[in-house]
Amino acid sequence: MCDIAVTTTSQQAEATDFESRLVRALNESGLLLLTSIGHRTGLLEALAGQSPLTSPALAERSGLQERYVREWLGGMVAAEVVETDPESASYWLPDERAELLTDRGPVNLAVYAQFIPLLGSVEDDVVRCFHEGGGVPYSRYPRFQEVMASDSGQTVLPALFDAILPLAPGLIERLESGIRVLDCACGRGRALLAMAERFPSSRFVGYDLCEEAIGWAREQAERTGLTNLSFEVRDLSDFDVTATPGAFELVTTFDGIHDQAQPRRLLAGIHRTLVADGVYLVQDIHASSHHHLDRQHPLGAMLYAVSLSHCMTVSLAQGGEGLGTMWGRERALAYLEEAGFHDIRVHQLEHDIQNDYFVCRP
Ligand SMILES: C[S@@+](CC[C@H](N)C(=O)[O-])C[C@H]1O[C@@H](n2cnc3c(N)ncnc32)[C@H](O)[C@@H]1O
């Protein structure tokens, strides 16, 4: 009897903890929606570094409707992000929070909050797929490329020259002296644009399925007057047979394998298109390939949600494998070996808890 009573008490405690956790999660999800809106409307930037502002003053400064601004401020005060003085009806964003929620600090976490509403917008489609199969096509995510480019603008761009490219010894020197570089699934091509500017003697090519992203990249290249790079709309599902053999000294993919329709065929094509002493540099999601080992993953639940609502389903929509965001390091290594890579080194970089970096040689 005594044992049963003890068990019951601990079960009750666990239930109470779990209930509190769910209530917290509900509340924090509200904060993410408010943060995304604050980022997109410019309210967070408008508050950063300012002395206290009233709601009408903030609305005027931001060119926004005051009633909406006031409601947003109420939510951000309730979330204990924005501070308020009831006497003067004024609001401010403390500097240490502004550092994390605007472009003032090294990482703007408000950028990532956008994924919640972006992915939530296709929930009906995803639920339908649970019943009927198939997937949700890229066309259902009008803001995906924009949000993705600001995500990789934080994980790739700031670390590209000092941390990512140096993972392959001698690569910077080769880029300086002039090599041919391909970025597969380049999205808006910001990594290529940065490299093309930095290494004028090298030539750069970007392929991606998405016309909007390639259009944006081309416009940017034209605007900056760069002539050593080009972008092409290209479906990489048959790259194993369409890739030109021995055409590049360096191939990169940034978050570009796990949502492909045919990741194995793309990897085989990358192997085929590299010269014998070439380098393939891969950034892809840090995870194990096992559910039970991802319990302690700092972003595990979030990244599985991203997978269901985007990465896995866009691949299935192309009739693809549906590998998913959390395919994990073990499976990545197996796929890379199967594609023909022999010398594979895996790295984690301090600035990026979300990704692994693989340096592979044919
Ligand atoms: C997660 S995004 C990464 C984009 C970019 N590398 C970055 O870091 O911002 C994955 C990219 O894969 C592209 N993609 C998906 N399926 C593709 C396919 N079959 N062929 C070529 N690109 C594809 C998408 O259009 C998207 O731009």
From TrEMBL:
A GO molecular function assigned to this protein is:
methyltransferase activity
Q: Which UniProt keywords apply?
A: Methyltransferase, Transferase
Domain named S-adenosylmethionine-dependent methyltransferase Rv2258c-like winged HTH is located at 31-102
Which CDD domains does this UniProt record tie to the protein? Answer: AdoMet_MTases
Q: What is its EC number?
A: 2.1.1.-
Q: Which InterPro entries match?
A: Methyltranfer_dom, SAM-binding_MTase, SAM-dependent_MTases_sf, WH_DNA-bd_sf, WHD_Rv2258c
Residues forming the Methyltransferase domain are: 176-289
Query: What GO biological process terms does the UniProt entry carry, in alphabetical order?
Result: methylation
Instruction: Identify the Gene3D superfamilies for this entry.
Output: Vaccinia Virus protein VP39
Quote the protein name from its UniProt record. Answer: Class I SAM-dependent methyltransferase
Q: Record the organism.
A: Halomonas kalidii
Q: What is the lineage of its organism?
A: Bacteria, Pseudomonadati, Pseudomonadota, Gammaproteobacteria, Oceanospirillales
